[in-house]
Structure formats: C-alpha cells, structure tokens
Write a structure and sequence with these properties.
Number of helices of chain A: 4
CATH superfamily of chain A: Hotdog Thioesterase
Strand order of the largest sheet of chain A: 1-2-4-5-6-3
Order of helices and strands of chain A: HHHEEHEEEE
CATH architecture of chain A: Roll
Number of strands of chain A: 6
CATH topology of chain A: Thiol Ester Dehydrase, Chain A
Structural class of chain A: alpha+beta
Strand content of chain A: 35-45%
Largest sheet of chain A: 6 strands, antiparallel
Number of domains of chain A: 1
Helix content of chain A: 25-40%
Oligomer: homotetramer
Radius of gyration of chain A: 15 Å
Largest interface: A-B, 37 and 37 residues
C-alpha cells in the first residue's frame, strides 16, 4: 500500500506549482534538500546528511530535520489548494525519536484534514541508509492556514 | 528587568562549554547563527536574515526560525547541567505568530523546569529591525533529556 | 505587576458573555470548575482537587488539568472578540511539569497574539495549597479560531 | 488489518494491570469512560456523549476528548512495561479536527516508540454514531515517562 501511495502523482499543474514554490525557498537549497515525490495530499523531501546540517554529535540537527518536515507538510497541504492559494505554517510539534543518522533523511508530509481555512498534516522523518534500510527518526503534527497567493 | 536578566552571565566554564558545543553544530554556522548571550538557564541566538534562510515569500523559513529556537532552548538547559552531561531534544512545539522579517532574528530559550532527567524550556523568537524595533514572531515550548556526555 | 493584571477586569458585558458561555459547558460544572477572574485577554479557572478528578496516584488527572487550561485559554481569547464571535480550540500542547496536587488548581489563559482569524494563548496551571503556596504544575500553548456565534 | 490489530489482546496479566490502574482514575469513572480494548501497545477508551462532558455548543469538550486520549496513550505505553513500572504523561499535543459529536467517542492510543525512559504515542479520537459510522475528531501525539511503581 505504501508503494501505491508513493506512485500516485499529483497533476502536472500541481507538481509545477509545488516545485516553483519550493525553488523560491532559499533555505531548502541552502540545506541541500530536494522534493522527491508530489502526490495529492502527500509530499516527500530528501535531505542528504552532510556536515552542514549536523548538531554537536554529528547527527542531523533537530532544526534541519524539522525544516524538511515543515516544508513537506506545507507542500502536502498546497497540493489540495487551488492555484490562487498559498499556505503558511501556523504551528507544528515534532518528537525526535532517534538520532537522525543515515545516508539521507526523508521527510513525508501527509494531509490528515483539509479544511477551508485550516489544514492539519502528519509529519514523519525517516533516516535512510545507503542500502535502503529505513528508520523513523521523527514524528510530528502540523497546522497550516490557506492564504491568498501574493500577486506578482 | 529584561535588561538585568540579559546581563546576568553564566560562569566562564559554562559559557565555554556551551560555545564549544555550539561550534560543533554544523547547521548553526551553515545558517549563519551565533550565540549572543549565555546566562544561567537562558541562551540567546541571533540569525541574520539572508536569502539562504528564506521560505517562498522571502521571510525567514519556519525551519530556520525553529532551528535557532531549538538550539537556544537546548543550550539554556545545558547551562544548568554538570560537565558530564549533554542534552538532546525530546520534542518541541512552535507557533509561527507573524512573518519572520527584520535585520535578524533573535531566539531566546529559557528553562521553565529543570528536572533530573527532563528539562522544559520556553522558546521565543523575535524579529529585530536595524533600528532595534522588536516583534515576537514565534513562541514555543520544548522538552529535553539529559544524557551522559560522550567521552572523547 | 502580577497583582495589577489580576485586578484588571474586563467590561461587565464581556464578563457576562464569558460567564454565560462557561455556564453552558457541562464539563466544567461536572468537574467542579469555576471562573475566578475575567480580564482583557486573561482568564483564570479554579478546580478543587477531589477524587472525581484524579489519576491512578491520586493527583489531578492530566485530562482535568488540561480541560481547565483549555477553557481558560478559550475564554481569554473570547474576551477580545466582538459579541458576534465565538471561539473554538484548534489545538493545544501541554507539559505536565509536576504532580498536580494541592487544595485546588488554578489555570491561567493569557492571549499572546490575537489575530483576525487565529488567536494564540499561553496556558499555565498552578497547584495551590490551602495556605496559598503556589507551584507551576503545567505549562502549555494553544491555537484558537474565531467563528461566528451560532444564532439562537 | 485494523480489525486484526483490534482483536490482538494483551496478556491477561497486562490487561489486569491496566484495568486495575484505570479503576483508580477517579476522572475516568466520573466522566463515564471505560476501556474497550487492551492490546500490546494499543488501548481503546470509549466515552458516551452526555451533557456532563460538553462545551458551550453541546459537543464533547476538548478537555474530555483530550482526557480519554491521554489515558489511552498512557495505558498503551503501560502495556509494554514490566510490572514494576508505572507511567506518567510528560506532555501531549492534540488537534481538534471536527466537532466531537456522536453517540460516543472512541480514543485510541498507539505506541510509536517505546524506549527505556521515554515512550511516544500517537493519539486518535473518533466520533462514533449509533449506526457505527466513524469520523476522526482529534489527532495528537504524546510523550510519556516510565517511573517506578509506588509500593503499596
């Protein structure tokens, strides 16, 4: 079932909208993060483990782990909005369950409830080894608000 | 009262311990963050607003805002530990109250409860203009756990 | 300063609006809770410690502690709304800092940010002994949404 | 899969330990809550919708919704502990996704990560109609700590 969900792609227009917005996030490119899946109500973001994203023990910093989780949830919400809408994070809560180690992290944002004004997402971050082994390293929950897209 | 608190410094040994650990956090230097105050149970971290830390609208990304808040809280907890102890974030929750704009952000972590195993911190992030005007842009709460310091 | 804030009362119309709504909350009277202060952006609720509100060790249950904190925050938000508005809790997070013991608990909800749609409150719960000694037993943060008041 | 999980029962000794502790929670019986399932790492609690548990609009109060979610998560954690251990809630966060209506609510606590000291649970609360129709009304995440069981 996991595989089917991952294969379900959002429409080309939605995927373009998400990628265009992601490309405007200076933080994501500065961290080295990239979007790896855009499905309806579900977005994945990968972050290679590099010295630039570590905490004092060499694991990925909770702040970097949270940053990709926050963006994954935000874009998951955006996939269900019309093109006149943008999304802002209201708040989120995240538990760091295990040292964030591996070849890279994968954050998965999934819409739990999409309302007219507010959207609630579940957030997961997995540590992925070079051989594909995965471990849940963080789990969270996020509230987002729909706002009008700024006009160019 | 705010000023007196800000002027109260932790001991030189504690300040050194905090700075040494901070210098090991690759993420903090990659973001351009620096520690600006180390008091007993209270740490400030400043983050200049740069294109490298933005979200899609040019404000500071919630992930960067959270990252300095998380580190400020973690080091606030560490100031109250003995030198054999290190600290890990268990979880945190943060509300983004206003667009994170300004010359720089200032995160303030303050210990609310310091227990034998767990510490709870309050987190604040202010947007600071070039003229010194301040606005609260994020507010949060964090749980941390004391762990043994890894031996060199 | 604490005392001045506690003495600052909301207008009679606002206090009536809050009390009328509180009286409709079956849970609050079933728990034995009562409102003890209604100021602008700040509401206090007291809960006597009774066997009806305990957990397995005889302390006040986290659920009862949270219930009065949630109501205190909700009514703190309501004091700043016009009379056409009602309030609903979007989410909250609470840390249980110490066993909730004492003669009674006092929950304090304080508005941190009052926006057009969303309000964010800080939540505190104190355990109060018969001699007036107080201890912070829980600390939290809450997001609320303004909605139209149902017409009678 | 949902059904198989629900049918998997914890051992009789664990079920007895959970029920004995639940029976000591004055709040649960005062609210009218009862445990409906005890599986390994998963506990269900049902709460009939009654005037005694409502907020100002007649829905179940966020505080009552949270109380059964908190207990469900706490007992889910307890099912994985040895008999010398008790559990305390460190913190939780809960989103109220929809008006909590129905014949009764069902809270489900599920262990996400069981560590030596800390356990993290996912919390769900469903509104259940008399005809069995279910709707997710709240979703949360909880951190718990293992403590020694008090000696009698």
């Amino acid at each position: 079932m996991e595989d089917r969900t991952q294969q379900e792609q959002a429409s080309p227009a939605v995927r373009k909208r998400v990628r265009d917005s992601f490309d405007l996030q200076g933080l994501m490119s500065h961290l080295g993060a990239r979007i790896t899946h855009i499905g309806p109500g579900r977005v994945h973001i990968a972050l290679p483990a590099r010295p630039e994203v570590t905490q004092q023990r060499g694991y990925v910093h909770a702040g970097a782990t949270s940053a990709i989780a926050d963006s994954a949830g935000g874009y998951a919400a955006l996939t269900l909005f019309d093109e006149e809408s943008d999304v802002l994070t209201v708040e989120y809560k995240i538990n760091l369950l295990a040292p964030a180690a591996g070849d890279h992290l994968e954050a998965i944002g999934t819409v739990l409830k999409s309302g007219r004004t507010l959207t609630v997402c579940g957030l997961e971050v997995h540590g992925v080894q070079a051989d594909g082994t995965r471990k849940l390293v963080a789990n969270g929950q996020q509230t987002l608000i729909r706002v009008d897209r700024p006009t160019a």
